[in-house]
């Protein structure tokens, strides 16, 4: 075939293809959001020095269109819609009060995905209830993890079925060595962050590289102790796609509340209650069903996932995924001296579960290894 013929043939094919196929973009699942505003009143016995709104997603700060320090009435205008804004105020007594956006990361994208599912006639995303066992596991995750920040305190947890958001305070009190190699004694490193979790078939996993750092201080204990910050979800305002938002009516507490954040002059290792939002109270208050294997004698626990357990397991064994072992064993009120045998697919997850139980004070726990290992041992006994 000559070069000229090849070029002509290619042109005919290209023309045919272009004429036969018309590329059309899918219409957007929702209309672009409208700009909107926030208005309301913040009452305070202590003088409000300043007020602004911030998006934790974009980190942009917005100044009010109008704000009366005398009455506390305010208005924000021309804010992008379909977005959440946290109102932040500074008081004359040096307290800082802020709203906290506890929406799940990429909440707007999840909403768009739900709209698209409806548009395409697809089933909705898998749903579940957020119950006390979920809370226990998330609290245990924050308590038991080991990293550079030696002390952690959970301030808020908000659950939405398979998804959860945590506002957490982290602190390093011991001296440490900087990247330069020099020791840095007498310093405190303090951070407040938002963490995001996703439930994966019975266990919660923290989403990597999605945390949002709200505050960070590296200073002497004396300087750091002057910090006072409190977070309130009521000061977090959502402007919908039509530019509308519920008006704000907030009363600033007369005294500081360290359980909502960090109060000036408090002990660095202060402990306090965690605020739990989104909990399915009805499900959480139902009495836990205790597995039959927990009544007496040896307790055999399969620490694999529920799916693996359903495929095959040891007769009489109960299923508790390894990352739920602490919370579930506490619920069952198992005696610390009870004989407990753990197994999984290879022995790895059973080893992790064993370490957790030993840390809780259980003294008669063994890792039987894999499902195949324990099956062999039981067949030999027969």
General form: flat
Which regions have little confidence, pLDDT < 50, spanning 5+ residues?
Answer: 283-296
- Work out the strand percent: 25-35%
- Structural class label: alpha/beta
Query: What helical percentage do the residues reach?
Result: 10-25%
Number of strands: 23
- Mind summarizing the main beta sheet? 7 strands, mixed
Count of helix runs: 9
Cα radius of gyration in angstroms: 28 Å
Mean pLDDT: 83
Structure description:
- The chain is built from nine helices and 23 strands.
- By secondary structure, it is α/β, with parallel strands linked by helices.
- About 4% of the residues have low confidence.
- The chain has two domains: 247 residues, no CATH class; 90 residues, Oxidized Rhodanese, domain 1.
- The strands form five sheets. Strands 2, 3, 6, 7, 15, 16 and 18 form a seven-stranded mixed beta sheet that branches. Strands 8, 9, 12, 13, 14 and 19 form a six-stranded mixed beta sheet that branches. Strands 4-5-1-17 form a four-stranded mixed beta sheet, with no helix packed on it.
What key attributes describe this structure?
9 helices, Oxidized Rhodanese, domain 1, alpha/beta, flat, 382 residues, six-stranded mixed beta sheet
